[in-house]
Amino acid sequence: MTVKIEVIAGGIPHTKIMVAGIIASLVCLYLSYLNVVTNSEMFSFFGGLAVVAALIWGSNTIKVLCSYGIGTGVPSAGMIAFGSGVIGMLLATKFGIAAPIVALVLATVIGLILGYLSNEVLNMKIPAMVQSLTELSVVGAFTLMGFAVLMTGGFTFETLIAGSVTFLGVSLPSYQVSFIGGCLIATAFMLGALAVQHPFNACLGPGWTQDRMLMLAAECGFLSMFVAAVMSFALITTGSALISLVVALVGWGYTYKHYIGLSKRDAASWLDSKPIPDVEGH
Amino acid sequence: MTAVAAKPAAGGAMNPTAMGVGFVILIILLAICWVVAPVDSRLMMLYALIGMVVGGVLIGFGTHFVPVGGAPAAMGQAPGIATGVAMLAAGAGLAGLFGGAWAAEQGTVVAVVTGAVGGGMMMAITCMMVNFIYVFGMGIPAASGKVKVDPITGDTQPEFKSQGTEGHGLPFVSFVGGVIGGLLAGGGGTLIYLMLLDLYTATLPTMMKATEAQIMPIAISAAGIFAVGMFLVNAVLTAYNITGTIEGPHDPKFKRWPRAIVASAVASALCGLAAILIVAM
Predict the structure, then answer these.
(1) What value does the mean pLDDT of chain B take?
(2) Which residues of B touch A84 (CB under 8 A)?
């Protein structure tokens, strides 16, 4: 199993990715506040970029956590990330412009307590558990907030519940045509939960390389952003939704091309991994 | 990083100190709910939070009954349903939750029972189809690797177990365990949803200055997504408790359930408090 450890040692250190992920997501979420400043919805696509940044960070966190062989499968990490993230995110939206920062704090608290429960009460005793669950909780909250911005143009509770329908040329307020009222949040939940767990689930093994996994994470992020951008046509102006759609398409095309390139690179070389190692199962 | 060497050490041991700390956190969270809630709706919010804790504990306890096989089961090398807890919870438990949500207007008891029946039925169908595929598709008999005799039917097991495996297929006791697990988890999920739905329909109209009919989409959707989130958190925590796989109620790992009760109670109280704070603040 020496091969696997050598591969893990390479690549960008996790701390660096974590800091970059937090800063990039926060900056992108706050850049979407230009919507309020300029009184338009053109900058909604920054929400999608925040999603991509958070997902890249999250997939590397899942790699750190699941290297320990927690026995529950990689998808479970994505599920608990968004299960805890959605709770912190929804409460944070009540805090107006401070919402992204509050989401960071709330998700950290929720993640810390869940990490303590898993490590001490459930006796998992995995060194990376507390930090990873905390990070995943924040990733879940940021991703959902990013999707909310992408679809509605804002991250405050009022924006997420208010929508309008045009009936006979008259615009009427309707709570049903909104991010929460129309339950678009459930779609965002699953889009994010699948996108955060898939990259490591698909790339794990002796031939794992970090750049390939992170490129796949970015590709999954842009693909999810594309779907969310299509849904945003219902809630924001057509022009703004088109901008998000084009950004998502360009980003997806770029990352997909590079991911295929990296896959070919890794497939052309081969790694002399030992036959089935004699390490006990679970 | 010595990731390979550091295998999970989640043994059967209890950690009394951590359980005590968990209990204290639970009391603190309940107290925070009591203090933060507006005076006139204090009792209602505490009642809702306690309901959510009970629901979460039901989910955590119920998941222990479900025969989760994981990847080894897919290769016919371990008994159980061939997938992870997160997938089973999303498939069977949420089926119960949605079933119960349909009956929400008929009152709490009817809705919770409907949710439980929905979850149990989904698990029964899943277990039956799994055994169909094992027996007729893969050609392997059902045999438990953890017990010599099926506790319910009394059938002997070792004769049917292939060498080098931990058992395979879905013995009768695992089937029954799966149905009980579906009943408990479906009922628990529905209870969480109902508690939040009642709370939101009572508080959102004044908060948003709208009629009850107008805020219904918000109340249903927010309660639903919170219930889904809490369901997944509880299911994954239980999955950590059993380190991913369990055969059913006869498995020695089943004895670890007290730890999961404490963890689920604290996690549900934490998530429930956040859900209540949305309308309390």
Answers:
(1) 87
(2) 229, 233, 271
- Domain residue limits at A11: 2-153+173-268
Which residues lie closer than 8 Å to A254 by C-beta, 6 or more apart?
Answer: none
* Cα Rg, chain B, nearest whole Å: 20
Question: So what's the ipTM on this one?
Answer: 0.88
Residues B208-262 pLDDT 10s: 888 888 888 889 999 999 999 999 999 999 988 888 788 888 888 888 888 999 9
- Do B244 and A73 count as a contact with CB atoms less than 8 A apart? yes
In a domain, A163, yes or no: no
- Interchain proximity A114–B237, CB inside 8 Å: yes
Query: What is the pLDDT tens value at each position of chain A, 282 positions in all?
Result: 333 333 455 678 889 999 999 999 999 999 998 888 888 888 999 999 999 999 999 999 999 888 887 778 788 888 899 999 999 999 999 998 899 999 999 999 999 999 999 988 888 888 888 999 999 999 999 999 999 999 988 888 888 887 776 666 777 777 888 888 888 999 999 999 999 999 998 988 877 888 899 999 999 999 999 999 999 998 888 999 999 999 999 999 999 999 988 888 888 665 666 666 666 655
Q: Where are the beta strands (DSSP E) in chain A?
A: 163-167, 170-174
Cβ contact, residue pair A117, B267, below 8 Å = yes
Cα separation, A92 vs A160, whole angstroms: 12
Q: Is the pLDDT of residue B56 over 90?
A: yes
- Look at B229 and A87 and tell me if their CB atoms are within 8 Å: yes
Chain A residues inside the 8 Å CB shell of B218 = 161, 175, 178, 180-181
Residue of A nearest to B77 (CA): A281
Q: For chain A, what is the total number of helices (H) and then of strands (E)? A: 11, 2
Pick the residue of B17, B236, B237, B271 with the most A CBs within 10 A to test the interface with A by mutation: B236
Alpha carbon of B216: minimum distance to chain A alpha carbons (Å)? 8
Q: Rounded CA gap, A239 and A232, in Å?
A: 11
d(Cα A1, Cα A209) in Å, to the nearest integer? 16
Contact A282 B270 (CB under 8 A): no
Is residue B8 assigned to a domain? no
* Cross-chain residue pair B70–A279, CB shorter than 8 Å: no
Q: Tell me, yes or no, whether A277 lies in a domain.
A: no
Contact call for B240 and A70, based on CB within 8 A? yes
More confident residue, B1 or A43: A43
Residue B264 lies in a domain: yes
CA of B277: which chain A residue's CA is closest? Answer: A91
Residue A278 forms part of a structural domain = no
A10 within domain boundaries: yes
Question: Does residue A145 contact residue A99 with C-beta atoms inside 8 Å?
Answer: yes
pTM for the model stands at 0.89
Chain A contact for B59, CB < 8 A? no
Q: How far is A80 from chain B (nearest CA, A)?
A: 5
How far, in Å, are A189, B262, B267, B277 from residue A141 at the CA level? 10, 25, 17, 17
Domain count, chain B: 1
| Chain A residues touching B267 at Cβ < 8 A | 113-114, 117
> Where do we find the tokens 């959102």?
B204
User: Which amino acid appears at position B163 of this protein?
Assistant: Q
